[in-house]
């Protein structure tokens, strides 16, 4: 007899291997909500609110440090912590949306009602990414700055079938690179339409909304797909260009710098600048990774089934 949704959620939360990661995420929630709650009730606060990144980064660092020498992959633990702590982000977003709906005009209230779920999903995705990046530093700190994952950690790709490329390198078959390549193709026209064409009315507005949705969530998915594909590279996964943590830092670092610069200059909405920077940085990371992978294998990455 299959377990119900409640039982599955309980098993997910109480997973022995990720218990510490879950606990750290839960402890981060009040430190996310309390500092932001004072602005949630202000009438001049836009829907989405303002969330401090310090608790998110600290929780990620702690998890990276703790899981660096344990069988559970640090990446998996940091994603769990990010998902749990993002509950605090959702609480802040809902609070600011509630204030906006009560205090603003009907038109703005409708816009806030539509944008809040989208902003909430974006907040969850960015929280997970920031937690993962911070976990990189925690793992590096514990390992004394040594690159690469701890050798005692398990890898879900270890059982994937092996293949030998035309250049003589041994890799595992993977389809994850297809997602990375798709992101590389979609982003340029989507950015041009969003930033250059930028329709202000009509069906074009819906196209822009869909483009933003695809680019933002596609960027997070691309980083996850990239990390998964790196796990299939065999001996080459230890190369500098195949270190997934450097790719994550290369994507998030520029966005963090742009956010800090925009905030210091008093820009009205710094996250907007950071989001577009993040999208562009992930695109550059994706293109660079695919170029390096193609050079390593001597051909397009194989995704076919093993020969019978």
UniProtKB/TrEMBL annotation:
The chain crosses the membrane at residues 20-40, 46-67, 79-102, 108-137, 177-196, 202-226, 246-266, 272-292. The keyword Membrane applies. Keywords: Membrane, Transmembrane, Transmembrane helix. It comes from the Archaea. The keyword Membrane applies. Residues 146-170 are annotated as: Disordered. This is Uncharacterized protein. It comes from Natrialba hulunbeirensis JCM 10989.
């Amino acid at each position: 007899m299959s377990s119900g949704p409640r039982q599955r959620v309980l098993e997910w939360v109480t997973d022995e291997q990720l218990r510490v990661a879950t606990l750290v995420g839960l402890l981060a929630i009040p430190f996310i909500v309390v500092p932001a709650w004072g602005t949630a009730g202000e009438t001049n606060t836009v829907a989405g609110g303002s969330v401090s990144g310090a608790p998110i980064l600290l929780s990620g660092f702690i998890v990276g440090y703790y899981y660096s020498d344990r069988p559970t992959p640090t990446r998996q633990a940091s994603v769990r912590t990010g998902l749990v702590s993002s509950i605090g982000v959702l609480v802040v977003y809902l609070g600011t949306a509630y204030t906006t709906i009560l205090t603003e005009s009907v038109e703005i209230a409708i816009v806030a009602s539509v944008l809040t779920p989208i902003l909430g999903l974006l907040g969850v995705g960015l929280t997970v990414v920031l937690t993962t990046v911070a976990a990189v530093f925690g793992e590096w700190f514990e390992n004394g700055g040594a690159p690469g994952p701890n050798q005692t950690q398990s890898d879900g790709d270890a059982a994937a079938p092996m293949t030998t490329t035309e250049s003589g390198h041994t890799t595992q078959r993977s389809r994850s690179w297809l997602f990375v390549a798709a992101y590389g193709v979609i982003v340029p026209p989507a950015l041009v339409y969003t930033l250059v064409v930028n329709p202000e009315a009509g069906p074009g507005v819906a196209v822009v909304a869909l483009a933003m949705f695809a680019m933002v969530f596609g960027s997070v998915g691309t980083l996850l797909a990239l990390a998964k594909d790196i796990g299939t590279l065999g001996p080459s996964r230890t190369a500098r260009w195949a270190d997934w943590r450097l790719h994550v830092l290369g994507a998030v670092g520029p966005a963090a710098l742009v956010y800090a610069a925009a905030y210091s200059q008093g820009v009205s909405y710094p996250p907007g600048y950071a989001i577009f920077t993040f999208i562009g940085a992930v695109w550059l990371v994706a293109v660079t990774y695919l170029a390096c992978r193609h050079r390593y294998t001597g051909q397009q990455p194989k995704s076919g089934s093993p020969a019978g």
